[in-house]
């Protein structure tokens, strides 16, 4: 079982510290997306990187359509990793939907986590005016899902530009598009449905783990209204507005991302050497 989890989620461990930081990628991405951020924490922390089943170098044979039909299947993977590594009071850093996956895991097993750091999180992507604006109409999501079915490469190219939102740096959008295209299309479509059609707003008040919400500027995937909603409904949360534009500051603005995380940890945690 232990070896199967290592292989299943392609777990890689680095760092010199004893307290663990667990980095979770977002939709359609693998652990490589953290390469500009994770090394900054290796001196003081133990770093754990992993891939979701169906992406990166994970064990694709472990994919189960029923298990991964909702975010709870992915959160169970996180719990499996925590149990295997015998984590206690770890720091979980998640990007986008990876943040919500970590939140769900922390609700079930709060003892595994000391802090949650969420980069561009959203508990629900659909608009429900006038009380909630997630950024997308149902028709928007429907059309995105249909485009995935008809033209997966075209969908990847389009969505990567919307997500990255740094048109002067096309190499960033290309990297994200390549990441999408490296994921099995069937797995990606199911993960997309589990992500963009989910609604975990009711789970926010259940959280007991202190958290940092990192809200990007001009983020089409998780707009400012979402960051504000998260902060108001997530107990023990801190909200930080970033200068970074788009939805992937760990790629587009790694220095600011590192600085905000380090500042939060310095003022809210005692590093366990």
Give a structural overview:
This protein is of the alpha/beta class and 273 residues long. It has a single domain, classed as Rossmann fold (3-Layer(aba) Sandwich), CATH 3.40.50.1820. Helix content is 41%, strand content 15%. The chain contains ten helices and seven strands. The chain has helices at residues 2-8, 71-84, 97-108, 138-150, 152-164, 170-182, 185-196, 224-233, 249-252, 254-268, and strands at 12-15, 20-24, 46-49, 90-95, 113-119, 211-217, 237-245. The protein has a seven-stranded mixed β-sheet with strand order 1-3-2-4-5-6-7, with helices on both faces. Strand 4, helix 3 and strand 5 form a beta-alpha-beta unit. The longest helix is centred in the last third of the chain and has 15 residues, at 254-268. The model has no long low-confidence stretch (mean pLDDT 92).
Topology:
Layout: H1 2-8, E1 12-15, E2 20-24, E3 46-49, H2 71-84, E4 90-95, H3 97-108, E5 113-119, H4 138-150, H5 152-164, H6 170-182, H7 185-196, E6 211-217, H8 224-233, E7 237-245, H9 249-252, H10 254-268
Parallel strand pairs: 2-3, 2-4, 4-5, 5-6, 6-7
Antiparallel strand pairs: 1-3
Helix pairs in contact: 2-3, 4-5, 4-7, 5-6
How would you concisely characterize the structure shown here?
The chain is of the alpha/beta class. It is built from ten helices and seven strands. It is 41% helix and 15% strand.
């Amino acid at each position: 079982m232990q070896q199967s989890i290592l292989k299943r989620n392609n777990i890689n461990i680095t760092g010199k510290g004893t307290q663990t930081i667990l980095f979770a990628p977002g939709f359609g991405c693998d652990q490589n997306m953290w390469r500009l951020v994770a090394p900054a924490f290796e001196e003081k922390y133990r770093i754990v990187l992993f891939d979701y089943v169906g992406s990166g170098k994970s064990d694709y044979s472990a994919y189960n359509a029923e298990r991964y039909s909702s975010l709870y299947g992915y959160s169970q993977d996180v719990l499996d990793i925590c149990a295997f590594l015998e984590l206690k009071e770890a720091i979980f850093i998640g990007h986008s939907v990876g943040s919500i996956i970590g939140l769900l895991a922390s609700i079930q097993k709060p003892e595994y986590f000391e802090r949650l750091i969420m980069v561009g999180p959203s508990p629900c992507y659909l608009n429900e005016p006038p009380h909630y604006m997630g950024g997308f109409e149902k028709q928007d999501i429907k059309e995105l899902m249909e485009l995935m079915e008809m033209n997966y490469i075209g969908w990847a190219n389009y969505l990567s530009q919307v997500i990255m939102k740094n048109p002067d740096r096309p190499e960033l959008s290309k990297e994200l598009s390549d990441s999408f295209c490296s994921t099995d299309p069937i797995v990606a479509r199911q993960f997309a449905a589990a992500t963009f059609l989910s609604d975990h707003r009711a789970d926010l008040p259940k959280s007991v783990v202190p958290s940092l919400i990192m809200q990007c500027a001009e983020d089409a995937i998780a707009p400012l209204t979402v960051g504000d909603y998260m902060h108001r409904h997530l107990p023990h949360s801190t909200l930080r507005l970033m200068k970074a534009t788009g939805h992937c500051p760990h790629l587009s603005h790694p220095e600011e991302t590192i600085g905000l995380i380090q500042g939060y940890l310095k003022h809210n945690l005692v590093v366990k050497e």
